[in-house]
Design brief:
Helix 5 runs antiparallel to helix 6, helix 5 packs parallel to helix 7 (about 250-315) and helix 6 (about 210-240) packs antiparallel against helix 7. The chain has a 7-stranded mixed β-sheet with strand order 2-1-3-7-6-5-4, covered by helices on one side. The protein is elongated, with a radius of gyration of 32 Å. It is of the alpha+beta class and about 350 residues long. The protein has helices at about 1-10, 75-80, 85-95, 150-160, 170-205, 210-240, 250-315, 330-350, and strands at about 30-35, 40-45, 60-70, 100-105, 110-120, 125-135, 140-145. The chain has 8 helices and 7 strands, in the order αβββααββββααααα. The protein has 2 domains: about 1-285, Beta Polymerase, domain 2, CATH 3.30.460; about 300-350, no CATH class.
């Protein structure tokens, strides 16, 4: 949180629309790819300069311009100037901590979503911001990193399978959103496996590591909730948009994405409730174990209280105590006392009281 505040502080005092990158730089260089197509034709290339994208603004075909890396303010500024994108929208594109939202600017629609993925090595959820500009004959996507979940969409465009080559840029935008939402299910599946494992561990052998894992998962669920709940409003806004950029034929597909978003939200809420219940269960388990420990220690203390009282009253000052005449009696008693202490420590360790 402190790092995010420091990055945002760089914009303090600057006028609205200032292009300053806010967030972590996830790509070393900016990569620009262009896919241009209609029902009969298709071309794909990687642009070396941003100027190569400019001729596609007025074509009769559908063009998808994908930009990986939003840290380069010059690239963002040039494409914004040529495609007449408002400076405040460009500022939002470079501020990579946006809440998912939709802005209807008349000539184009601006959409912000969070693209999630699961890192199996680090066992954590990764997130990056994806910004979409939906125009009359183009879609411009801005990503923080090079990896994405759009390969199935690219394959359908290349092979001509499905409706994407027959439809307009609004259907392309739907396809990108659908890929992002579908990947949420994969992330939730991985998190669901962790929740099930924690449930088994909680019943069999809960420990401090279990509590830490529960707290980590709770934070991830809170983050997922922040990413998914606003997305429902974004998809609903696209479906009900009165803009001519969203055709009525695309509405039914957007409703399907909306349904998937609701399913993701329900799953996230279910996992959150389960983790809250697991936390209560862990605390109850720890409390019960503590009660058992206290019961045993209370029994031991109760047994020794009267013995200690009697020993204290008489002071063990009997006339005939053969141990007093032993040359090694003192050291034998000390060793015996140390052995009792070690024995009790080992016993407590095995019973997992320590």
């Amino acid at each position: 949180m402190a790092k995010n505040s420091q990055r945002r502080s760089r914009k303090a005092g600057l006028p609205p629309g200032s292009l300053v990158h806010v967030g972590e730089k996830k790509a070393e260089r900016t990569k620009i790819t262009i896919i241009d197509y209609d029902e009969q034709n298709f071309q794909e290339k990687e642009a070396k300069t941003i100027e190569e994208c400019f001729p596609f603004k007025e074509t009769a075909t559908v063009t998808w311009i994908n930009i990986n890396g939003v840290h380069d303010s010059e690239v963002v500024s040039k494409i914004g100037t040529h495609f007449c994108i408002h400076s405040l929208i460009l500022e939002d594109i470079m501020t990579t901590q946006q809440r998912p939202k939709i802005e209807d600017m008349g000539d184009y629609i601006y959409v912000v979503v969070r693209m999630l993925s699961y890192d199996g090595g680090k066992r954590e959820v990764l997130s990056e911001q994806v910004s979409l500009i939906i125009g009359p004959n183009f879609v411009i996507s801005f990503q923080e990193n090079g990896g994405d979940v759009f390969n199935p969409v690219r394959d359908r465009i290349r092979t001509g399978k499905g409706r994407v080559r027959k439809m307009g840029p609004d259907y392309l935008a739907y396809s990108l959103l659908d890929s992002i939402v579908d990947n949420y299910f994969l992330v939730l599946e991985k998190l669901g496996e962790k929740v099930e494992f924690l449930e088994e561990e909680l019943v069999s052998d809960p420990g401090r590591k279990t509590l830490q894992e529960i707290h980590v998962l709770k934070r991830e669920m809170i983050f997922l909730r922040k990413s998914v709940w606003p997305l429902r409003e974004v998809v609903s806004g696209l479906e009900r948009a009165e803009s001519s950029l969203i055709k009525q034929s695309t509405g039914i597909f957007l409703r399907d994405v909306y349904d998937h978003t609701i399913q993701v939200i329900d799953t996230v809420e279910t996992y959150r409730d389960m983790l809250s219940g697991m936390l209560d269960m862990y605390l109850s388990s720890v409390s019960n174990r503590m009660n058992e420990v206290m019961k045993v220690l209370t029994i031991i203390a109760t047994i020794f209280i009267p013995l200690t009282f009697i020993a204290g009253v008489y002071g063990m000052n009997f006339k005939y105590m053969p141990e007093l005449e032993w040359p090694w009696g003192y050291f034998a008693i000390l060793s015996f006392m140390a052995g009792i202490g070690v024995f009790m420590l080992i016993l407590f360790k095995r019973k997992k009281w320590l």
